[in-house]
Amino acid sequence: MVMVSRDQRYSGRGQRIVATYADYSSLSLATAALVVDEACKAVGARGRFSLALTGGSTPEATYRFLATAPFSESMPWESTEVLWTDERCVSPEDPRSNERMAREALLDHVPVQSERVHPIRCAAGEGARPGSHTADAAVVARACAQEYDALLSSHFPVRSDPAEPDPERACGGAVGALDLVLLGLGADGHTASLFPDSKALREKRTAAAVFVEGAANATTTAGDRDLWRVTMTASFINRAACVLFLASGGAKAGVVREVLQGSGDSKRLPARLIDPVGTLRWHLDEEAAALLDSVGERN
Ligand code: 6PG
């Protein structure tokens, strides 16, 4: 792997790596292999591994690879904690639920212990429907964000601020941080549920509730608009040992270039807030990488 040397905007705390793969399938295969590798290293070093899954469609093939041999058999599931970067406030059966996608593609097929799986359950009765900007949905989403903050803070206690690298971690990361965070990238520059101009971008706690308005986020799909969500914050994600962005397809080429090589600020391009204490990787396919000046490794 080659370090990104042209991109001066990252802090340079940990390694910054951009890898490009021929297509979506090879990107997903390489990502599954990396998850297993990071898991085995973390369990070897500290006896446990924490993984934050992301939503959207891009990680689905990675999850399906992880659910099948040889990946499923090499993963230390008994020592793995599973969390989500963010969730739409819909029921876990809803087609828009990130939990549902991860369970169907991965978790229902592997021997992960249920007490180690921590979904974000933020749906109010009425909040499960699009267009439900009701006080109820807001109250439930905010209460859920508080509960998620409490869970994350107890599992991953902040021992220093600003986050200091943990000398016990080979690949970097702050003391008490997540081992691996998977992230997607929206065409508007959002990642997790950190949307342009959102107050959540400045949140210092580990989790926040966010209302995603249709008009403000025209690039999100219709079913995703006017919906409450709960998200990990950038300040928490940035404590991680390793953060991995996945982007596939020509529709992402423009925003990938803007985030990696443009000059837009992080208020407009929230993905630019992600600058972890540990390693930052990007896995792109050729189409998503098409507009980048040549950096990183081609696989
Ligand atoms: C979600 C996400 C979101 C997603 C991007 C990319 O719940 O939708 O966490 O940040 O990763 O919108 O989505 P795609 O992978 O579908 O392009």
Write the layout of secondary structure elements.
Blueprint: E1 16-21, H1 24-46, E2 49-53, H2 60-66, H3 71-74, E3 80-84, E4 86-88, H4 98-105, E5 117-118, H5 135-155, E6 180-183, E7 207-212, E8 227-232, H6 234-237, E9 242-247, H7 253-261, E10 279-285, E11 297-298
Parallel strand pairs: 1-10, 1-11, 2-3, 2-6, 3-5, 6-9, 9-10
Antiparallel strand pairs: 4-8, 7-8
Helix pairs in contact: 1-2
Question: Which labels suit this protein?
Answer:
299 residues; alpha/beta; Rossmann fold; eight-stranded parallel beta sheet; three-stranded antiparallel beta sheet; 7 helices; binds 6-phosphogluconic acid
Sum this structure up briefly:
The chain is of the alpha/beta class and 299 residues long. The chain has 7 helices and 11 strands. β9, α7 (253-261) and β10 form a beta-alpha-beta unit.
